[in-house]
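Project outcomes to date are best conveyed with an example. Our students and postdoctoral researchers have been running inverse folding experiments weekly, and each run begins with a structure described purely in tokens. The record below, which covers 280 residues, was selected by the lab manager from last quarter's runs and is presented without edits.
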């Protein structure tokens, strides 16, 4: 059955998932993964991980006429979802309604990943990426739901830091079954340093998280509980509810203990501007 997301037609949901579930976040190279691993390992001996951290979100809603007019209710619901999702990692997200910006710009509204429009928009709109989570919304290139930058990219290209979300993926949007706001939970996961749980498939270079079993490729839809699905190792179960898999919004509810640790390590390594002075 044909599957439509953000004005693009796919032959079915599986094809949309093969296309990347609309997540355009760049795939980390083995060299990136190794470098981050080495840096975190070297850093571990020097620091105690923080227990709690508050992150201020800056919303930049790019509009095109009547499109993209995200409401206060949607912002509140999105922030609540982030808080629920990352509470176990000690993170809380907040925002100020006074800081919310609406910008009407057709080119920016239709931006693609790594496009000139994206760079122009972020250069013009972005708040200090060392201190804030820049959260951009817009219509994006058709077929996409969003993307994010990784913590280890902040130093080299601070302007591009943040998450970019399809406006209709926020709670109350029209991008069903991806309209409950879990795409932002997934993209913020990347922004906090998490890779896809199926990163590297079964070839041994996984997501660097020891309690998310390796699986050969993304799961999608609402996979049945209690089955191994496409886990690489006999006896393992693919993490079908994990935020960093590609399942439907209403199927995502898991952040593992090792993912929580990885988030804290990444923040303490690459996003030290977010930390309270006591943690630095
Ligand atoms: Zn992703």
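After processing, the design step wrote out the following sequence:
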């Amino acid at each position: 059955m044909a599957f439509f997301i953000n004005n693009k037609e796919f032959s079915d949901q599986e094809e949309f998932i093969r296309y990347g579930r609309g997540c355009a976040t760049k795939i980390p190279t083995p060299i990136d993964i190794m470098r981050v691993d080495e840096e975190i390992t070297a850093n571990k001996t020097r620091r105690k991980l923080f227990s709690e951290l508050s992150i201020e979100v800056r919303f930049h809603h790019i509009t095109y006429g009547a499109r993209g007019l995200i409401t206060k209710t949607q912002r509140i619901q999105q922030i609540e979802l982030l808080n629920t999702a990352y509470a176990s990692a000690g993170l809380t997200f907040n925002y100020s309604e006074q800081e919310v910006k609406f910008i009407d710009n057709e080119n920016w509204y239709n931006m693609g990943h790594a496009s000139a429009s994206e760079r122009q928009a972020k250069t013009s709109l972005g708040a200090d990426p060392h201190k804030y989570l820049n959260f951009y919304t817009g219509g994006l290139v058709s077929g996409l739901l969003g993307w994010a930058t990784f913590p280890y990219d902040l130093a080299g290209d601070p302007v591009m830091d943040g998450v970019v979300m399809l406006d209709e993926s926020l709670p109350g949007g029209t991008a069903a079954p991806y309209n409950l706001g879990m795409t932002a939970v997934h993209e913020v996961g990347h922004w906090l340093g998490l890779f896809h749980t199926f990163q590297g498939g079964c070839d041994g270079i996984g997501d660097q998280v020891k309690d998310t079993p390796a699986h050969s490729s993304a799961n999608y839809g609402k996979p049945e509980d209690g089955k191994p699905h496409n886990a690489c190792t006999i006896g393992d179960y693919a993490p079908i509810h994990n935020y960093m898999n590609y399942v439907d919004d209403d199927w995502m509810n898991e952040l593992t203990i090792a993912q929580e640790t990885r988030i804290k390590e990444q923040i303490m390594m690459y996003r030290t501007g977010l930390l309270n002075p006591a943690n630095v």
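The CA atoms of residues 82 and 185 lie 6 Å apart. The radius of gyration is 18 Å. The training component of this project remains on track.
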